[in-house]
Amino acid sequence: MAIIIINRSRYNKTPYDVLFQPLANEPILLITEYLEGFEGKFPVVERIERFRRNGNVELRALELGQQHPITHVVATSEYDLLRAAQLREHFGIGGQGVASAMAFRDKVLMKELASKVVDVPRNRRITSVLDIHEFIQSVGYPVVIKPVDGAGSLNTFVLKDRSDLVRFLDRCELWGYEIEEFVKGQMYTVDGLYHRGEVVLSWTSRYVNDCLSFHQGIQASMVQLADGHPLQPRLNEFVARLFREMPMPELTTFHAEVFHTEADRLVLCEVASRTGGGAINELGLHRFGFNMHHAWIKAQGGLLDDVLQFRSTPKAELFGFAQVPPRVGTLVGLPEQLPFDWVAEYLPEAVLGKKFEGLAESSDKVAVVVVRGATEEEVVKRMSVATEWMNQNCRWEP
Asked: What is the pLDDT of residue 212?
């Protein structure tokens, strides 16, 4: 009996030896992108480079399955959900299957399903330039083009006119993209934990800077909404309708992004069957005292106690996070801490000595700062102060 873990996370985020300590007698077989911290902790620890699209990840899992009877497959990255689902079906074990994973990974299929119960942007799968031309003729500019299975807003383009389209076609292949109308509005999120038809835990937030802000050299940041915010019940009801239509796994964390338009409509951007990025999990941890990401990981390995025993006791304080973007240059110094008592958590992310070419996607950052406050406005102001202080106190060389 053994558990295969497909891992793209660093040890400090996912200390699997601690999380699966109750299963100490059951072999943990780790296939990982990041090795540091995991060495020597399991019978099998194998690092694979170019992890995101390297088929050797699946090959090694299949080979390990020939040596051990596999009971569970654990994965948390957006890029690994489908490969984990395929392995589960191959081994004949429980957990999220292929149909469910595809519904959350393929953005065209996702919107097709969601459109039965909520508003979605007009969209089309791109198979040729004809699809782009016909869509723009019908919808008009601006439009958004992005990978159907992307994450982190990587290779997402907002085309405002024909010149933007010409530049896009000049540098990008069309395979694997979708095109959709540009929805103007404030972006909100609903994050939480789902189990057997019920939302066990959730909270609503709004983006201060959204996931496309990295194109302007600014990183995504968000703040939780206060209880009593007028959009909160509407956002929760929106997600409840969505989950009744989507092929939900039995248990998953989730991250839903929803536009609130100037016409007071709620429109789905995307929904994911995984924990949101940045410090979204930390927002829940500080607000509710519960690490839903770790609970989800343990549940994938068969340990459900954290989920079943959870009782919601939120704090009155609100929390937000700011991601500190890299500059062009080599990072040579990071502060050990910030001099503010309202900083709830400081998470250095970058390795000293790493050379950056600027921002390539919304997950690029040197650190994340989680702050607390009594109101949304206070949290946002403190996020700005923390970001500016970090920009002044990180040390860079050309």
From this structure: 55
d(CA 330, CA 353): 6
Residue 249 tokens, joined = 């796994």
* Strand 70-75, strand 157-159: pairing: unpaired
Q: Where is pLDDT greater, at 144 or 327?
A: 144
pLDDT band for position 1 (50/70/90)?
Answer: confident
Q: First vs last Cα of the chain: how many Å apart?
A: 52
> Does the pLDDT value for residue 23 go beyond 50?
yes
Tell me which residue has tokens 């990840």: 57
Mean pLDDT of the 184-198 span: 97
> Distance (Å, rounded) from C-alpha 347 to C-alpha 327?
18
Dist. CA 14–CA 24, nearest whole Å? 16
d(CA 63, CA 85): 17
Quick one: which of 10, 16, 25, 78 has its CA closest to 297? 16
> Could you tell me if 267 and 212 are in contact, meaning their C-beta atoms sit under 8 angstroms apart?
no
Residue 315's CB: how many other CB atoms inside 10 A? 11
Report the DSSP pairing between strands 395-397 and 328-333: antiparallel
